Fold this protein.
Amino acid sequence: MTLRPDAVRIVIVGMGYVGLPLALQFCRSGVSVTGLDIDAAKVESINKGTSYIRHITSSEIAQATAAGLFRATTDFATCRDVSSVLICVPTPLDGHREPDISYVLDTGRAIAPHLSRGCLVVLESTTYPGTTDGELREVLEAGSGLKAGVDFHLAFSPEREDPGRTSSTVKTIPKVVGGLTPACRDRAAALYGRAVDRVVSVSSCRVAEATKLLENIFRSVNIALVNELKVVYEAMGIDVWEVIEAAKTKPFGFMAFYPGPGLGGHCIPIDPFYLTWKAREFGQHTRFIELAGEINTAMPEHVVRVVSRALNDDSKPMRGSTVMVAGLAYKPNVDDERESPAYVIMKKLESLGATVLYNDPFVPVIRPTREHPEFAGRRSSPLTTPVDAIVIVTAHDEYRTFDWAALPCPVIDSRNAVAARPMKYYRA
């Protein structure tokens, strides 16, 4: 990795699961990147060349920093006199399940005083249509005294990061770009064109924002469908997993989605509600999306009912029993537990009087979370710990090869992860 004489200098705000991989890809393309984050621990790790995200190696970071292409800071003044500022900060839901874009707007306010003429600002955080050319534009203009589309460029390009996926990378996943003006769009497309194989330009920021919502609403609705069918087919004595495997042999008109214990991650459980909330402003009701949300949100309760039945079959009550939750991460083989249904299941089990342990080879200690701070500091227990029941919530590879058949307690499998089934095996 060599610093080129004509290297572009950019700032990426937010060094999490989206911002850090994006920064490294720009560095590989010869772009000089400053990672900006309010978390001093992340900044220190980057500058030391060490990784804090499992699927990103320390050597990748060290190579970029040693080449002089990558550094990190907590100082927003670093946004002064750079060609571009990319915003990759969280957009969660608040306590009322409504969009919380405070991180985006606070970042905009912090950037604005340092914004220079000709700079490009790109929002990557998933949000509802109108955020970029509305609220974000307003705070940038108010804080800088500059006009978007005239004095500085403004665009939206949705992140498409999928932690743990090896078949696609930041470089190979097409990048959708929409701008406040055609010139803004073209400027953003040119920047991303340095780092990714394909840029897909669309007519506006709002189209780009709506594109990301469609992608994740599509997944949410289809997962809800198979989750509902799971419960229906279970009542009929039919294995939904076998049905899906048979259906996906059709070479057209079918795409396989799989049931589970509920939705997790930073996108699918959250993004559909951004559109639902915004649609009300236009007098529209997103009944299909809301129904899908209801079904998916009900899945942890279904899992807990199966755990209760398994314990009852084993002549044990829920109250006083010890239950192991196997898998805290929201998807296999990653250390990302954001919005994980495991937290909801743990909370429901404890509310019924169970003692709850967890195991996750990728999450040895539970970090503080916005939604479930009460679990922070708990440590992963060995799978061999004597318990009254185990419920598999995440299909880590380690669980697929583990000898569950040797366990005397009931095993409740919500992910079809068990090949050699024990005598006391339950689907959830």
Remarks:
- The longest strand covers residues 9-13.
